[in-house]
Amino acid sequence: MITSQHPPLLQQFRSFYFQNNFTNFEEAIERFAIFGGISGVPDHHMPLLPLIKMHILDRYEHYHRQMTSMTLSDSIYHSLLTGIALGDGRVHSAYKRARIASDIGDAALRYLCESGMIRQIHSAIESVEPKLYFNVPFVRFWFAFVSPIFKGIREGDYAEFEVHYLNRKQEFTEWVFKQLCMELIRESFKDDPIVEIGHYWNHDVEIDSIAKTRSGKTIATTCKYTHAKIRKNELSKLQQQCHMAHISVDTFVMVSKRGFSNEVKALKSRNLRLFSIKSFKNLVATEEEKNTIKKHNTL
Fold it and tell me: Is 1 within a domain?
């Protein structure tokens, strides 16, 4: 059952990770981006597309009823949610994708935020237009890939869905990956705790996260969810972005799904921290906490 009451994303991920007994963090993140927030434990040993078809597409009517109960079956809300799910999160681009005027969009957005489906996030440091984020990964998945082509899915034709999803899979999963990366940064700087962290953007620059520590140090992070190792040019790009944004950085952080080139590894220091997909083990609970979670979820 999906409700407007939802725990923080990290808590959702931890619960999802342990309930499904994952050992592979890449697989856990990929599937959390789709199934995060819905009840029932998907068999993660199954290939991804058959799993989506069995647990979501074949149960279209079930989830459709839940979604429409939250959106009041309002077509404007549905269009705006799809605009947010498929866009860059900026308010004006979501309105443009949804093909709605700003006054109508503002009213719809107020409802979606009040209902708990969407939240507004403001740029770290800068006073610019906020971005819109889904609170539950599955709701984002639904309005990105199911709702826009519901007619075929309702009739049991999943061909268009498969093409649509595979074309955007990496970009879609990267959004959740970057959100979890910020939680990873929080967990990884315990000696000088993070007191503030967030995505940074202005009209010219976008940085995956900027963080401030208790001692006043600034940490800038880039996150790459690609099939290639991160090379030195990505560090140079991050440094240039911070320079353009007039942000003085004490520590640069790079997070990569596929690791780093030898050239980047050689630069690792107190001022350059490197995290791979294996580093996400820091996000999950201890074995003692894991056993407690399992015990409480046993009927």
Answer: no
**CA pair distance 229, 236, nearest whole angstrom:** 15
Coil, strand or helix at 171: helix
CATH number, domain containing residue 45? 1.10.10
Q: Residue 7 in contact with residue 13, Cβ under 8 Å? A: no
Which distant-in-sequence residues (6+ apart) come within 8 Å of 99 by Cβ? 79
Q: How confident is the model at residue 299 (pLDDT cuts 50, 70, 90)?
A: very low
Note whether 274 and 234 are within 8 A (CB): no
How is the chain split among helix, strand and coil, in percent rounded to 5? 55, 15, 30
Q: Same domain, yes or no, for 49 and 163?
A: yes
Same-domain pairing of 196 and 169 = no
Confidence (pTM): 0.90
Q: How many CB atoms lie within 10 A of CB 214?
A: 12
Q: For residues 5 and 31, which has the higher predicted lDDT (pLDDT)?
A: 31
What was the pLDDT predicted at 41? 63
Q: Is residue 291 part of a domain?
A: no
Q: What is the mean pLDDT of the chain?
A: 91
Q: Are the C-beta atoms of 258 and 290 separated by less than 8 Å? A: no
